[in-house]
Amino acid sequence: MGTPAAQHYDRRATSRILARLAEPELFAATEPPTPVRILFRTKELQREPETGLTQSQRMYLERFMRPCRPDQVTSATHRLTWTDSAGIPNTGYVHTGGAGPTLAIVAREAVLALWDSLARSGLGGRAAALSGHDHEVLAATTTDHDPHEIFRVGVEAAGRALVQHGLIAADTPYRGIAAFARGMHDSGIFTAVATRWFWELQASTFRRGMIPVRFATQPDSTVRYTAESVAVLRAMKEATIADARAVMARATTEEGLEVEAAVARYHDDLDLISRQYALLPADTRPACLAASPHEGGSVLAMVAERFVDTVVALVDSVAVVEDTTDEQPGSASGDDGIFYVPDMSCRHCVRTITALLESMEIPVVEIDLESKRVIARIRSLRNRFRVFEALRDGGYNPVDEVPAPVPGASVG
User: Fold this and answer.
1) Distance (Å, rounded) from C-alpha 94 to C-alpha 45?
2) Which option is the CATH number for 336-407: 3.30.70.100, 3.40.1550.10, 3.40.50.1820, 1.10.357.10?
């Protein structure tokens, strides 16, 4: 038998493996964009007058974002829903003073284009050639153990970061989607997210349509986080690390659990407890695996640059039109047990959603991460309503299947 994967938890080694897999070129050439017309809907968020946040946002802030205050957070004004060119339902958030719905929709199309490019890049062959030890390191250190999935999630995270900062686009001198995307890249915002934020904060606040930072414009027209934003991000990160270490110390001493058993027990029960912090040595600070510098740069820089280039290339080929009809989309399948969770982005999300449904005594039949589809034995419309409400409380936005867009339409 091989050595247990727990003995191979190694963030530095994982970073080197990912950098090696990204050589000589992570992405194949993207196909020329096909014009597409995409309909979207918006719904105004009900924000509490005293905080300016929705109830879900406020509850998440109070539980997981200490010492961040409500006034340090910008909330979206509207929730956005649409179906992308691959026929997959999506949700997002926009601010009336921000970048608008086009940014979220074009960013999703860029994700799809780069996923296709990634599949054609030869990454699969390089991953298959990894040693057994390298595979064990990836399995022990990352949430998505398969290299292809790791890079797919990285592409989606780039889109998330760009769209989330669109909520505060009014803080910047950039006007238009292309200029905003270029400005975020040139200002180093993708790196700032990777190094100053922690993963769960970025993913969970994105799903809830909130962002706990503001921008300050520099003399060279780039933007940086304000000093207050940097301070609150640092404080939240330090509190999260302290929480993770306290839980692990209690689990391995008072409860007598082995490390792997402790991680398995608390990974799903507490949103912020994961390998990223729970297994770090006491004197070690967390660092983004993709942001670590290697010869020729970093994986993060490679992904961010290609993502922004793809967004810019797609701007003129995606026609975004608001659907103002009174009809609301319903389930095309007619099956109460099939629905979609558009903001499900990684295996951690799959585990979280599975655990939630099973806690409600609803068996999960299948969760397909690529299509965002969930099949569960819900059995009744009443239970379906309960499931949707529970998922929304967890920061997810389940939807019924909606009509596909019309590919190839004139973009006018």
Assistant:
1) 10
2) 3.30.70.100
